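INTERNAL AUDIT FORM
Audit reference: QA-55
Scope: verify that the stored structure record matches its stored sequence.
Auditor: D.O.
Record contents follow.
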Amino acid sequence: MKFIDILEEENILLNYHFISKKRLFEQVGQLLGDSRSQGLFIYHSLLDREKLGNTSLGTGVALPHGRCLETDEIRACLIKLSHSADYEAVDNQPVQIVVGLVFPLTVKSKHQRFLKETAQLFRQHVLYEKLIQIDDKHAMVETIMEAFEQCNS
């Protein structure tokens, strides 16, 4: 399983106006939750994970993630901010691309591997530079697919 296999176009949000991490995490919860209560549970899971350490990858990308699903699935969203924002990133660079992931409450090795591979994919500065230029969901998906194929060739 790879990131592009689970990213659905309806879970891509373009030109999101960043106000705070909390508001951003609420948005991730709304995108990935099946209900308002599940969205709230996702929000709290993301907050709890962020308290353990900043989830930025550096190079303008953040990867907030949490364990909160009752099923064995993984859900993903991609949010492009309307402008670069202070995410308190590890490299002190502003963030403009946010990749939200939620995992089952009980994480297995396949979930850990998925997180690691997704982080490696989005650490590519070339991918970041392409994504911030795109304002079309389908083009975003195509660009990520190309980057994944290049990364694994």
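Auditor finding: record pair retrieved intact. Residues 3-151 form a domain with the Mannitol-specific EII; Chain A fold (CATH 3.40.930.10).
Action required: none
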